[in-house]
Amino acid sequence: MSKNPAGRRFRKTVRWGAALAKRGAARSAIFLVDATFLAYLFVMTSYVVSRMVSGVGAYLPIRGEYVVLGAIVAAIAWGFLGTSVGEKVILFLSGASLRKAAPDLAGSVTQRRRWYKTVWGLSVVLAAIVTLAAATLITQVDFSRLVDSLADTWKMIRRLVRPDAEILGEVVMLTIVTVFMALMATLLAIPVAVVLSFLAARNLARGPVGRTAYVIVRAAASIVRSIEPMIWAIVFVIWVRMGPFAGTLALFVCSIADLTKLYSEQLESIDPGPAEAITAVGGRRLQVLLYSIVPQIINPYLSFTLYRWDINVRMGTVIGMVGGGGIGMLLMQYVRVLAWEQVGMCLLAIILVVWSIDTLSARLRARLS
Amino acid sequence: MAAPQLVVEHVTKVYERGDVHALRDVSLTVNRGEFLVLIGLSGSGKSTLLRCINRLIEPTSGRILLDGVDVTQAKGAELRRIRRKIGMVFQHFNLVKRSSVLRNVLAGRLGYAPSMPTLIGRFPREDVERAHQSLETVGLVEKMYTRADQLSGGQQQRVGIARALMQEPELILADEPVSALDPATANSILQYLEQMNRERGATVICALHFLSLARRYGTRIIALKDGAVVFEGLPREIDNARFKEIYGEDAEEVEVR
Ligand SMILES: Nc1ncnc2c1ncn2[C@@H]1O[C@H](COP(=O)(O)OP(=O)(O)OP(=O)(O)O)[C@@H](O)[C@H]1O
Ligand SMILES: [Mg+2]
Hints:
Oligomer: heterodimer
Structural class of chain B: alpha/beta
Distance between the termini of chain B: 35 Å
Radius of gyration of chain A: 29 Å
Largest interface: A-B, 22 and 35 residues
CATH architecture of one domain in chain B: 3-Layer(aba) Sandwich
Shape of chain A: flat
Bound molecules: adenosine-5'-triphosphate, magnesium ion
CATH topology of the largest domain in chain A: MetI-like fold
CATH architecture of the largest domain in chain A: Orthogonal Bundle
CATH superfamily of one domain in chain B: P-loop containing nucleotide triphosphate hydrolases
Strand content of chain B: 15-25%
Largest sheet of chain B: 6 strands, mixed
CATH topology of one domain in chain B: Rossmann fold
Distance between the termini of chain A: 49 Å
Order of helices and strands of chain B: EEEHEEHEHHHHEHEHEEH
């Protein structure tokens, strides 16, 4: 196979080409980091300075083209003038492999000097200071405001801690709704996630079809997971109108993505030995699954599911606030009319139910492991 | 002379990943009733050869005939019928740790039992009976309902042997069955294999690391080196020169009893 010299020469050329490409990629990455860093430093510094000098909202942005152009020129210049931030970052991130491909790059970094004697060290410190200053300005940090309306807040708190027992019936009803929303979403998500988890386990993904399914399911799960449940709730409120069904759907979608990830990671960590043994005795694929894989995953799966139900109850209260039904929706109605005694009652119910389900699920999970 | 039970003809295995030639043109024959010991350095291809015989690994080329039937061509139900008469004992036992000893042993019967009931964990009465007998043979009846991971290594390997017994195997493949065990336990495990070989007429092919054990239990020895057969003969034919040929110049023999 690897005996013919032409093949070996070809492979050598490929390896040499790969090293060259790696160098080129590293150079470009360094340039990009430098340019971005410089542009950022310039924009932030000018923002902070103009705010300091001329007050709130005083930032007149320089035209973007000039910033980009300036950054490019400065980054190129920096490439020649000693070690830049980009070199530091890229070499740190890529480590040994790049050091082998581009020893000259590494050489310039390995010589050690104290940070305050280097341009890159000083510019990183400058960037840190400017970032902190800009962050303070942007988020409008103003601690005096905490004190200003202390009296009003105190009044609200006093009303909150005197929950209105008259609405007890309604609160209990809607708390039950929230718990059942969580239950329903979890139950519906289980079969879907179980099937998907087998597609999303790296060790089970075989052949081109398996690999493609693996990539698609993995990607879909992480996209869904990166979108907050709150946003899913808004989507479903628009889709199926306000109410518990919208909330259940939002929790359902999030549960599928979350459980698929947890389940498939469990599948990836199973011991392949028993499956080998069951195959060797002449078992069918379904028997291999039931006799070697299922016993290894059943308890973790149950445990993850309980955990997810617990999260769903907590999420369910939040999701209600954007129209997803249950106790959260009631809470939001009272908040809008500043009915703090009623809000207090809702909060009390939420705290109680979340705490008890949390405890219950933790107990059960401890027994399972 | 009767036809050999197992014929391995020019079997080659190349692992695509890493471009490893694990077996190079291996040919051998095994007669019914032999206790064949495979020796060779780590990485010489012992596990690969054993797993090609029951197709846990696909050979790249070559043929393997078991009782005249080409194993390498078998598919689906036919492959399962071939597998069910080949018992396998593993270095790390390969038991389902969370399941009971009984369930692990019963699993050895999966190739025979009607498959529908086994999907809900049910086996014919005579299979349960057989499981009791197998556990009796290896002296573990009282551990029947214990979880497999609560047993010692030696006990777990005995469960592995009981599982193989369930198959009424005509051939037993043992991949370093005692490498994870202490010397005394190792001997008792190999004695069970010897018993299956002598009393039940099962042919045994067993990979071993210690030459002393190979000499004691093997009726014949085959040595692999870099995926090729470098020695084939009787245990007593392995002298010092042969030993160095198989294991390299610097090797010293360690005595295990
Ligand atoms: N799944 C695999 N993918 C790639 N290479 C493998 C794989 N399994 C084994 N190999 C390689 O094949 C060669 C033979 O391995 P094998 O496990 O058959 O050796 P062995 O004689 O059983 O060794 P040991 O005594 O350590 O168990 C080794 O070089 C090993 O690295
Ligand atoms: Mg091995």
